[in-house]
Structure formats: C-alpha cells, structure tokens
Inverse folding.
C-alpha cells in the first residue's frame, strides 16, 4: 500500500510540474466553467493573478459579452460544417484589452 501511495505522490508531482511549466496557457474548470486551476502561462497571457481567476467563470473572464455567444457556438458549428477554413474570435484580457483567437482545422 505504501508503494502505491508513493507512486501516486510522484505521479501527481510530475503532473503538477508539467502543468506549471508547459508553454501553453491551461485552465482546469468544472462542468459549469468555474475555474479550479490555472497555470502561470494562462495568467500571464490574460494579465490576471491566480486569486483573481479561481472560482470565476472562464467565459466571463476571457470573452466580451458580444463575442461570448459567437465563440461558444463556433466549435459545434465548425464541426458540423466540416470546413477546412479557419475561424477567428476576439478574447478579452483583463482591463478590456483584446486578444485575437484563431481556430485552425487539423
């Protein structure tokens, strides 16, 4: 039992290190979109501190009300069209600064 606990602890430490050091912004949210965890790269991209994002709704932090509906409908619509064209949307950083998001087909 102790070996399993030790392996689990090492595995969790590895995943935590990976989460914090990957060069992409990553957020872990619950089913309702409430942020449970965000890595430093995400915080740097959007200009927030960790205590400002935990428990908040992801959509409300990174999209303007105008773009939110458009952005949320893109993936489903895009998949249904089966198009090879890219799509774009605008994300909102802290203090209403805008950032452009480009979704590219695989």
């Amino acid at each position: 039992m102790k070996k399993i606990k030790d392996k689990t602890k090492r595995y969790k430490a590895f995943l935590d290190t990976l989460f914090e050091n990957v060069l992409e912004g990553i957020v872990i949210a619950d089913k309702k979109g409430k942020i449970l965890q965000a890595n430093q790269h995400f915080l740097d991209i959007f200009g927030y501190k960790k205590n400002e994002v935990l428990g908040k709704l992801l959509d409300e932090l990174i999209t303007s009300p105008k773009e939110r509906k458009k952005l949320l409908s893109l993936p489903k619509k895009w998949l249904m069209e089966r198009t090879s064209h890219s799509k774009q949307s605008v994300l909102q950083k802290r203090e209403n600064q805008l950032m452009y998001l480009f979704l590219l087909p695989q």
